[in-house]
């Protein structure tokens, strides 16, 4: 479903779910007037970038759906890596699913879910990929494909996104294949083995990024004790201080 300007592609996908859509539906738009990021932060949605949401219906059991954010991040990584094949920039995933190029955000992913009136679970994977423009924010530095020297707009990028996401969802296989997804995700992860800070509404935790577990939780070594982190904004730590969060 290709649209012009909408409030958000994810909202449109959920509307389709409520109307009885069977899922595996992509909704794209030229721009969004009410795009949003994690924790309700606004997502600037100017024309020229790719705004796309994938509707899934009953993608897995409730116990396994929590790994989908990492699956989505890997799907976008697979979509983008071909465009960076001849580029020196480092493409990485920042837990759980931001896509970074040399530490700057090029894609944000937000998952939303809703139990429908008929009992089905609708899950929407919303993706915003910066092709031509990016917001300026010193706390959350960003970039776009054009700035990286890559000439690819939404028309070229969307087929790669749809293919990459379809393949990673097939590998995930309703959650039963997450072990393989986890291995590939860790290979693409930024900051593994280094110091990070995870900020939450109730505080923050500093430690060494050691791993992710079978539920997709971040595993930090905090003064010799391993901590499981389910959610939060991750910042890499450098000699100059916190380098990035999103």
What does the secondary structure layout of this molecule look like, with pairings?
Elements: E1 2-6, H1 9-18, E2 25-32, E3 50-57, H2 68-81, E4 91-94, E5 98-101, E6 104-115, E7 121-129, H3 154-172, H4 178-188, E8 195-200, E9 203-212, E10 218-222, E11 225-229, E12 233-238, E13 241-244
Helix pairs in contact: 2-3, 2-4
Jot down its keywords.
six-stranded antiparallel beta sheet; single chain; 4 helices; alpha+beta; 13 strands; 22% helix; 35% strand; SH3 type barrels; 246 residues; 2 domains; BirA Bifunctional Protein, domain 2; seven-stranded mixed beta sheet
Kindly describe this structure.
It is a single chain. The protein contains four helices and 13 strands. Helix 2 crosses helix 4 (178-188). The protein has 246 residues and is of the alpha+beta class. It has two domains: 2-188, Bira Bifunctional Protein, Domain 2 (BirA Bifunctional Protein, domain 2); 195-244, SH3 type barrels. Helix content is 22%, strand content 35%. The longest helix has 19 residues, at 154-172.
Q: In order across it, which strands form the biggest sheet?
A: 1-2-3-7-6-5-4
> How many domain regions?
2
- The chain-level mean pLDDT equals 91
CATH topology of the largest domain: BirA Bifunctional Protein, domain 2
Low-confidence stretches: none
| Rg, alpha carbons | 17 Å
CATH architecture of the largest domain: 2-Layer Sandwich
Quickly give the structural class: alpha+beta
Shape: globular
Beta-strand residue fraction? 25-35%
**Roughly how many Å apart are the termini?**
29 Å
CATH superfamily of the largest domain: Bira Bifunctional Protein, Domain 2
Order of helices and strands: EHEEHEEEEHHEEEEEE
Proportion of residues in helical segments: 10-25%
The CATH class assignment of the largest domain is: Alpha Beta
Major beta sheet summary: 7 strands, mixed
| Quaternary structure type | single chain
Q: Total number of helical segments?
A: 4
